[in-house]
Write a structure and sequence with these properties.
The protein contains 15 helices and three strands. It is mainly alpha-helical and 306 residues long. The two termini are 36 Å apart.
Length: 306
């Protein structure tokens, strides 16, 4: 994301006044040094931009996984483990303040052990892990058919969680093998639909037609309502547990895997940029760093003269 796009999102975020309250309290109550305060402001502005970009309007909706997702994005930037740890320190202090001041009932960073969290941040899934994840839902059940389609859409299309949860039926064109997605900054992009994604969506549409439909989004709860972010996230977590994947798998990690695997297989960087909806190609280039790292590791491991 470009600096301008990030600023546009955060300027309109209802979470911004919470940052102002935190910074004021840090000055008058905690007596933080000006340099530390400036670092906190920059780190937390970036964090709030991430939350706003994922359509989080209420601080009470922030989950542990949202924080992890942000740290993964930072690590992929790439950012050093030390710098990520500094960001996490600011985020933990911010959420502790909000909890203590009763802005929210829960602190999503309560059980975070900083060194362990930083060391265990995942990168991307290997191809065999993706296959295991996508095969995890029990497609003999209606919920399993829906969940299989959700997972396929994350990996095949590189969608953000908010984009998938808000995807309307009218924006999916199975006949044209494409879908229209409204991403950050209300920007619309066109994403190709592969054969497998079309098959899994078609199977889900057959089930969806039998369900109560209280919303026109593609994916519905068993009661016919639009699935919220937490429900979609649980689909990914259940599948990862069933597939026995040791990493902490998140929807954004599937987006990372989508981009990295495309580039690994020779996709054009500009095409990947368009599919991801990145305003700045520099944001997309983080995935070329991931690919080069994997190539370097393979060379070191297998070449006799490495």
């Amino acid at each position: 994301m470009s600096d301008k796009e990030s600023n546009d999102i955060i300027d309109t975020s209802p979470l911004l006044p919470l940052l102002d309250s935190f910074l004021q309290a840090s000055v008058f109550e905690s007596g933080l040094a000006e340099k530390t305060l400036s670092a906190y402001s920059a780190d937390l502005t970036r964090y709030l931009s991430h939350l706003a970009g994922n359509d989080i309007q209420d601080i009470s909706d922030v989950m542990r996984e949202d924080v992890l997702d942000h740290l993964i994005v930072l690590r992929q930037a790439p950012m050093s483990a030390r710098s990520v740890a500094r960001h996490l320190s600011a985020i933990r202090r911010f959420h502790r303040f909000l909890h203590e001041e009763h802005y929210c009932k829960q602190n999503p960073t309560d059980d975070f052990d900083s060194p362990r969290i930083i060391q265990s941040l995942p990168h991307v899934l290997h191809a065999h892990e993706v296959e295991a994840l996508l095969a995890a839902p029990d497609i003999s059940t209606d919920n399993g058919i829906r969940d299989a389609a959700i997972l396929e859409m994350f990996y095949s299309c590189g969608l953000r969680i908010s984009e998938l949860a808000n995807l309307h039926v009218m924006n999916v064109q199975l006949q044209e093998s494409s879908l229209r997605v409204q991403g950050k900054g209300s920007k619309t992009r066109l994403i190709p639909l592969g054969t497998t994604a079309i098959q899994k969506l078609s199977a889900w549409y057959t089930v969806r037609a039998r369900w109560t439909q209280k919303d026109n989004t593609v994916f519905l709860s068993t009661r016919g309502n639009r699935m919220n972010r937490s429900s979609v996230w649980q689909v990914v977590k259940r599948a990862a547990q069933t597939a026995n994947i040791q990493q902490n798998v998140t929807p954004h990690m599937l987006r990372h895997s989508f981009a990295t695997h495309l580039l690994d297989n020779g996709a054009d960087l500009r095409a990947v940029q368009e599919m991801l909806g990145h305003a700045d190609i520099a944001t997309t280039q983080i995935y070329t760093h991931v690919s080069r790292e994997r190539l370097s590791n393979a060379h070191q491991q297998f070449h006799p003269r490495a």
